[in-house]
Amino acid sequence: MKNLFEHTSAYWAKYASYEWRKAADGKEYLLPTDDAKASVYNTMPLADQLVLDAVNIGLLVMHKSPERKIKAAIYTFVCNYGLLGMMTALPTTANFVEYEKVYLPKNQFIRQETMDTLTYMKFFFPFKMPDFRKRGIESVWNVSGSDRDEAALALTFGDEPRSKAISFMRSYGEPYEWMKEVFLDWAFTFMSAFMYYHNQDVLDKHTRDMYRRGLACFEGNAPTYHLALREHPVIVWDFHSLMLTLKFLFSVKLMDTKNPMRLCEHCGKAFYAPRTDSRYCSAGCRNGMSKKP
Ligand SMILES: [Zn+2]
Over the stretch 128-153, which tens digit does the pLDDT of each residue have? Predict the structure, then answer.
């Protein structure tokens, strides 16, 4: 079987700086700052680190670390990789702006199965809605030329579903509580898989079933793909959001038996084991030198 990712490139955008802002509903959102420059990058060469960083944030949440520590970790993550693109990742299709209504598979954030497209978008534009109008399935999005970064991103991603470029607008933000949940989900899945194999000999049936169920909870949208004729026919994955990219890369990493993701017995962080029996993430942790978090 040929490597399915051979020709994959998944571009995403990030701003140079972000800030937490509290909206009228009392929720805190992370948004790009007013004058931060935007840049575009390919997530694929960073896949390993991206997955590890995401799982380690989830582990902080899981271990009930202090709020300021979790917030700082999410902030650093977003400065490195950009926001998750949840607005595009949650609905059944990334093309949701072309429909009158948004359809949502079961998720822990929004109860309703369908909702008006603009009402849905408001979840991610707590301060200022984009200049986006809809009448039935017709929609018009005016990208103002005054923000050159936004305009350049709209152009760069012009061939993809519009929700992607809309999620790169400066007024687009993601709620802290929701991001925390997303990271926690990944850490939970990782722990279920890790513990299942790690303690296989000593686990009773009940615990094994619990981990199996833990892994089965990992559901939601899967990315679609299309075919393209390059030097030969290739599969092109349609991720359209960092969240789906990550989810998929994470799943692939979980299957890795050569350098599996493991939990360091000293510091409790996830790491890629150079050998299958590695127990510590670094020499410092092996000698008990590094500080426990
Ligand atoms: Zn360690």
Answer: 998 888 887 788 888 877 889 999 99
Gap from CA of 285 to ligand 1 centroid (Å)? 5
Cβ neighbourhood burial of 171 (10 Å; 0-12, 13-18, 19+): middle
Same domain, 223 and 164: no
The answer to whether the beta carbons of residues 239 and 248 sit under 8 Å apart is: yes
**One domain, residues 16 and 89:** yes
248 contacts 233 by C-beta, under 8 angstroms: no
CA of 203 to the centre of ligand 1 (A): 24
Residue pair 166/132 in contact (Cβ under 8 Å)? The answer is yes
Q: Is the full-model pTM beyond 0.85?
A: yes
Into how many domains does the chain fold?
2
Residue 292: partners with Cβ closer than 8 Å, 6 or more residues away: 266, 267, 268
Kindly report, residue by residue over 222-275, the tens digit of the pLDDT: 788 888 888 888 778 888 999 999 998 999 898 888 889 999 999 999 999 998
